[in-house]
Amino acid sequence: MGIVDDLQRARSAFERRDWAVAYEKLAAVDREQGATGLGPDELGTLATAAYLLGDTDACIRALQRGYRQQIEAKDTLGAIRFAFWLARVLNDRGEGAVGNGWAARAERLMVDHPEDVVERGYLRIHDFFRCLDQADFQGALEVGEDIVAIARRHGDSDLLAQGLVCKGRLLLYSGRVPEGLALMDEAMVGVAAGEVSPIFAGSVYCAMIEGCQEVLDFGRASAWTAALTRWCDSQPDLVPFTGQCAVHRGQILRLHAAYPEALAEFEDACRRYEASGSNVAAGLALGERGDVLRIRGDFSGADASYDAAAGFGYEAQPGRALLMVARGRVPGAVAAVRRLLAETGDPVHRSRLLAGAVEVLLAGDAFAEAEAAAGELLTIATGFGCEGLRASAAYCSALVALADDDPDRALPHARTAVRLWSELRAPYELARAKVLVGQAVRLLGDDDSATAELTAACRSFAGLGAEPARQGVERLIGRSTAGGLTGRELDVLRLVAVGNSNAEIAERLVLSDKTVARHLTNIFAKLEVPSRTAAAAYARDHDLL
Description:
The longest helix is centred in the N-terminal third of the chain and has 18 residues, at 137-154. The protein is an all-alpha fold and 545 residues long. The protein has 29 helices and no strands. Pfam families: GerE.
């Protein structure tokens, strides 16, 4: 009765998502039964529990045993199922050669079953990802359609959810964004209703949110990130998918300019990826971390984070090119975005590059290219219909119009960007859009309104800790400072007041040490103070920080 009881406890624990207890009870039964061990069904459950606990080695061992048992029992379809999972788990772990070998073995076994069976749909999942790896988007779309058709014929909820997400992502990449998002919503209905098994549910959650982030559909991304967080929290021992969940929470926090909290999530994601053995996926988290550090003016930290992301095979662009511009390396940044745009063909991935490319190209005086990029982004955003992308396109259109000294054209775009970023509760982007409104109305002769817009933006940047943006707006305002300091001298004084050395100030402001020393000499003379300490005290006393 002990073995029967343990099996029942294992099943109950599995159903309530208590993976640790389910694994413990099944492993105990396996040990007690000695040479007989668990049967194929129990080995499949054991493998799933091990995977969800982050013990990939134990998962693979259980899957291999299940495969052998099914082969010995001449249950070919059962063996194909185990081979499918072995291929998936090994590929996810980065062991592509071994994983592809198991997929090939499953395909060979399928030759003996020419009839229509649901297992054929599962093997098509490997075909889908092979097409993606080869950038064969049309082929991948056709495979996705086949997966959905097989799933519907056999009433398989797992396969249907996976197929809908596969097909939906490819529709996004082909520019059919509303249609693709609708299919992904349909996949999520099954997940939210509890119709999809845990591993497929986690995969579908993450694929859905990634797709929403790619097209800047922040409304969907926020809603499904909250749902994924609840799903992960309901499984205290869960290891896979928690890293992705932390990244997605960080992305939403970054949108809302909660930068310290976003950084904490990205760092947590890296720890979770390391625990699950998915170090390659840490590149995205590191790239996102670099973007936040760049916005806050920690250029050295951003550079280090981008370098770490590159070490995992993730190219953090256009963030890295924007960092190069901030550090005065404009020609290199322009060359980078030109290469990226030449290499990127599908509208989704181009849309993620174009906004940054516009800023970099304008910094490099490549107006015609910037104008073309902004026009392309506006066309994509109109077709996609996602508010975040429309806001980004409106901002870029205003930026280009201002570069062309055309405030009449810039102002409507800038006001559209203000409205959309406000609706998305994105304070950093909202403040950036207000800067463009201020510049446009100034060119139209309304200096009072321009000062009001620019001052509001400056206060927002200061509150968010977005130092580079704040300093840029102060230069636009032309604000006079106590003691007659120039804008650059004020930048140096603020950094002195928070304890930066000359070398650190030079790094932050892209100046030479000699130039920083000259600015300090001028500051001491204008403020009539004898030392750095006295200058810092002056800054605090006169509310210059």
